[in-house]
Automatic annotation (TrEMBL), chain A:
The keyword Transmembrane helix applies. One of its GO terms (cellular component) is plasma membrane. PANTHER family: ABC TRANSPORTER ATP-BINDING PROTEIN (PTHR30482:SF17), HIGH-AFFINITY BRANCHED-CHAIN AMINO ACID TRANSPORT SYSTEM PERMEASE (PTHR30482). Residues 1-13 have a biased composition (Acidic residues). The keyword Nucleus does not apply. This is Branched-chain amino acid ABC transporter permease. It is a multi-pass membrane protein. It comes from Halorussus gelatinilyticus. Keywords: Cell membrane, Membrane, Transmembrane, Transmembrane helix. The chain crosses the membrane at residues 37-54, 74-101, 121-141, 148-172, 209-227, 257-283, 295-319, 355-380. Its main location: membrane. Residues 1-23 are annotated as: Disordered.
From TrEMBL, chain B:
The lineage of its organism: Archaea, Methanobacteriati, Methanobacteriota, Stenosarchaea group, Halobacteria. This is Branched-chain amino acid ABC transporter permease. The keyword Transport applies. It holds the Pfam family BPD_transp_2. It is a multi-pass membrane protein. GO terms for cellular component: plasma membrane.
Length: 402, 311
């Protein structure tokens, strides 16, 4: 671990907020923004409005071209990335093996649903416990060496989980075909997940989204509580300088292990939700690319902030699912299918654009690592700060000011 | 076939399998040991080596990807295997120099995690470039005609000639690199830098050039591994990452910065794979990870690694 402190804003800034844009003029804004009630409330509103904005709202959804299922998927991966970031962004440990917990929970949830109970809540609990347990075991081995070794070892043991599922455990996991026997019952025995929410289906869509959204809000609340507890402070202390934390008398190894387990549990929640979402567990959920994806999401969105990784997950999945489908890159507002057409004839910039989506993500990722260590969320925060300063100086000049 | 012959065949197969990992792992290990730089893009260097080797050795029909769209098909020099074995390492050496200068050097002072993230991103970019150029399909890297037959060995009977060549080529290269590190002035500086870079610089020895060389040599080794190992498997854009994970395990098992450790680790991993394939094929891939876990629990610095060198 390097002794250098990484560029990260302090705790007050980190809680971030989803509704930055809408409620900036509130009095004593800084204090309101920090409060747990606000963070959870804002997240709830954002989660509730998101699928409508993304896939059904006039004009906006025409720009996004999103769809309901993608909104659900973004939340699931958002939970995964957020949990991953508890480890990378707050403890400074880079794991390349989180596929083991995502996939492990997905399989555990699937098997549990087929063998024991199909209640979604119990399925999530089963998957999460399994992930937390495996995180404890893998963490115990991987944390024997710090820094570079940790990344390599988690990568290795994640791959080990993949190969375990591929052949020795194929009688449980279904091997290459994935696990197909998932049975998902109704939520609380009443609400069938496939059915639309009565009265609110224009906003929320199906019960499936309600379940995923509810769990997402819960996860944000838990993560927020952890980060603002003394326990979370220790995580940050370890990231800044683990030797000094050790000298203060903290059992650094134990805290690192706990951070790993917590992070694995979040990955488990997400993995179980994925099983419920797709009613199928592909073998690829164990493959190291899954770990790689969550690394990209977290870093792209911004490590060291609670909501950055969720934004990163959204961007990644959006590019993967929507942008990759674009055959030709055209200038905005040209061509027949735009919501606002200036020129009827499309102006093509790049043909076969969709095929480049992975390369583009890779390049953007490298760019973010080199230029913006705090990710896109950090960039937005900086921009917001600059705007506020600009606004503040304007107010001062007018004789006002705080 | 007698039991003895079978055992020897398995062991020889393991040696061949390990040889590729040794070549990749030596580069990883000396770069990690000397420069304290984690190169997740090392697999991409292997990938570059394999495709370059393919293009120098043969002429291939590109049916998918941009090269086909642009009309560069068939493509390739058809110079044969031996020229490839000489040209490709030189080219990949150059790639390594560029990588050290423009990727690694600006990141020496950044935290480990940033180095990993950067090289990981770079690996994705390189892999995607190859996927776009050559398509996602697999190419067949045909073995050279003079080495594609079977050879008769005492006790064992027949054995694929190519595998013996791999073992031989690897052994020769390992000896070469070992000599370079152990018996030259350059190697002395590198070894000293591995121990204590600050002290070496205080003594008035500039380390930036040896560092550049180390990175280049490591890259060239990955390139050679790509050429030598190319004919063993189908060539597609994913081979780089497939070889990277076992090679990391080799470094972990052998110990960072130690060439002998990389050789020992590579052989252990290769043999484990070969024996497991023969005994319990289902568990063959899992076995190497168990081996790594056991070594790590018993000897965290690796079998031949020293406590001080390990980052």
């Amino acid at each position: 671990m390097s002794d250098e402190p990484t560029e990260t804003p302090d705790a007050a800034e980190e809680t971030g907020s989803v509704v930055d844009r809408t409620q900036r003029e509130l009095p004593s804004w800084e204090r309101v923004r920090e409060s747990e009630l606000f963070v959870v409330g804002a997240t709830t509103v954002a989660v509730a409005v998101f699928p409508w904005l993304f896939s059904r709202a006039p004009v906006v959804s025409g720009v996004f071209r999103g769809y309901q299922d993608l909104a659900t998927l973004i939340l699931i991966w958002g939970i995964f990335a957020m949990g991953f970031n508890l480890l990378l962004g707050y403890t400074g440990l880079l794991s390349f093996g989180h596929a083991a917990f995502w996939g492990g929970a997905a399989y555990a949830a699937g098997v549990f649903s087929a063998q024991v109970s199909s209640s979604p809540i119990l399925v999530i609990l089963a998957g999460t416990s399994f992930a937390a347990l495996s995180a404890w075991i893998l963490g115990f081995i991987s944390l024997r060496r710090g820094g570079i070794y940790f990344a390599i070892l988690t990568l290795a043991f994640g791959q080990m989980a993949y190969y375990m599922a591929l052949s020795p455990l194929a009688w449980i996991t279904g091997g290459e075909n994935g696990f197909t026997g998932v049975r998902i019952g109704a939520l609380f025995g009443v609400f069938d997940l496939r059915y639309p929410v009565p009265m609110l289906d224009w906003l929320l869509g199906t019960w499936k989204y309600v379940l995923v959204g509810g769990v997402a809000v819960l996860c944000v609340a838990v993560a927020n509580r952890i980060l603002h507890s003394p326990y979370g402070m220790v995580f940050r202390a370890i990231r800044e300088n683990d030797q000094r934390a050790e000298f203060v008398g903290l059992n650094v190894w134990r805290y690192k292990l706990m951070a790993f387990v917590i992070s694995g549990a979040f990955a488990g929640v997400a993995g179980s939700l994925y099983t419920i979402y797709s009613a199928y567990v592909p073998l690829s959920s164990f493959y190291w690319t899954t770990s790689g994806e969550v690394v990209i999401m977290a870093v792209l969105g911004g490590v060291g902030s609670l909501f950055g990784p969720i934004l990163g997950a959204g961007i990644y999945l959006y590019v993967e699912n929507i942008v990759s489908g674009i055959q030709q890159l055209t200038l905005p507002f040209t061509g027949p299918n735009e919501w606002l057409t200036l020129v009827e004839e499309p102006v093509v910039l790049l043909d076969g654009f969709g095929a480049y989506w992975h390369l583009i993500l890779g390049l953007v990722f490298v760019g973010v690592v080199v230029l913006f260590p705090r990710g896109i969320w950090g960039l937005l925060q900086d921009l917001g700060g600059a705007l506020r300063r600009l606004g503040g100086s304007a107010v001062n000049r007018l004789g006002g000011g705080r | 076939m007698s039991v003895l012959a079978e055992v020897l065949t398995v062991l020889l197969n393991g040696l061949q399998q390990g040889a590729i990992y040794v070549l990749v792992a030596i580069g990883l290990s000396i770069i990690l040991g000397t420069l304290k730089f984690v190169n997740f893009a090392h697999g991409a260097l292997y990938l570059i080596g394999t495709y370059l080797g393919l293009l120098v050795t043969l002429e291939i029909n590109v049916t998918d990807g941009k090269l086909a769209d642009w009309g560069y098909t068939p493509i390739g020099l058809e110079w044969g295997f031996l020229p490839a074995l000489i040209i490709v390492p030189i080219l990949v050496f150059g790639v390594g120099l560029l990588m050290e200068r423009f990727v690694a050097r600006p990141f020496y002072d950044r935290p480990d995690t940033d180095q990993i993230l950067l090289t990981f991103g770079l690996a994705i970019v390189i892999q995607e470039v190859f996927k776009i150029l050559f398509g996602g399909q697999s190419y067949n890297f045909a073995r050279p005609g003079w080495a594609s037959g079977q050879v008769g060995l005492p006790i064992i009977g027949t054995f694929p000639e190519w595998r013996l060549y791999i073992i031989g080529i690897t052994a020769a290269i390992v000896v070469l690199v070992y000599g370079l590190i152990e018996y030259t002035d350059f190697g002395l500086v590198v070894r000293a830098g591995t121990r204590d870079a600050e002290m070496v610089e205080l003594l008035g020895i500039k380390l930036s050039r040896p560092y550049l060389m180390v990175f280049g040599v490591g890259a060239a080794l990955a390139g050679v591994a790509g050429v030598v190992g190319g004919p063993l498997y189908a060539v597609n854009p994913n081979i780089g990452t497939e070889v990277l994970v076992p090679s990391f395990l080799v470094v972990v098992i052998g110990g960072v910065g130690s060439i002998a450790g990389a050789v020992l680790g590579g052989i252990l991993i290769g043999e484990t794979l070969a024996v497991m394939v023969a005994v319990a094929p289902q568990w063959s891939q899992v076995g190497i990870y168990v081996l790594a876990a056991v070594v790590l629990l018993a000897r965290p610095q690796g079998l031949l690694g020293s406590e001080e060198v390990a980052p």
